[in-house]
Amino acid sequence: MANQELSTHGKQELKQDEHTRPGRTYVPDVDIYETADSLWLWADMPGVDENSLEVRVADSVLFLEGRVALQEYDSLSPVYTEYNIGNYTRRFTLSNEIDLDRIKARMTNGVLELELPKAERAKPKQILVSVK
Predict the structure, then answer these.
(1) Most CB atoms closer than 10 Å: which of 43, 53, 72, 73?
(2) Phi/psi of residue 37, each to 5°?
(3) pLDDT tens for residues 42-51?
């Protein structure tokens, strides 16, 4: 799908062969952290609300897509911008160590937060050592 990613004012614009949605599409900036029980992912998607967001997993690939209501910006004349107005898309290949049935997502102020719980087999286990 994506041919290349180019930097545009600090944001990476996704270049696609086929344009099925109007406007530009950007790669959201993402932070990922790990705890003993889960991976946590935060993706910046300014201008995207929870009704314009799609999070799905297919064939072990996590898809994040956020759509911005571009018509809301039509009457504005930018004076200075640090992020560009457009849709967002990003994908990640998940290992089989993620429990797909327990993934949780929430959107707060343009930041998508995902909890990707580890499957029991992926969690650290304490091994008891016997002494002879």
Answers:
(1) 43
(2) -105, -20
(3) 999 988 988 9
User: How big is the CA angle at 58 (ends 20 and 30), to the nearest 5 degrees?
Assistant: 75
For the full predicted model, state whether its pTM sits above 0.90: no
- Tell me the three-class secondary structure of 100-111, residue by residue: HHHCEEEEECCE
Mean per-residue pLDDT of the chain: 83
Residue 111: partners with Cβ closer than 8 Å, 6 or more residues away: 42, 43, 44, 45
Partners of residue 98 on adjacent β-strands: 118
For residues 41 and 36, what is the distance between their CA atoms, to the nearest angstrom? 15
DSSP state of 78: -
- Whether the pLDDT of residue 120 is over 70: the answer is yes
Cα separations in angstroms, 42 against 38, 70, 81, 84: 13, 23, 22, 19
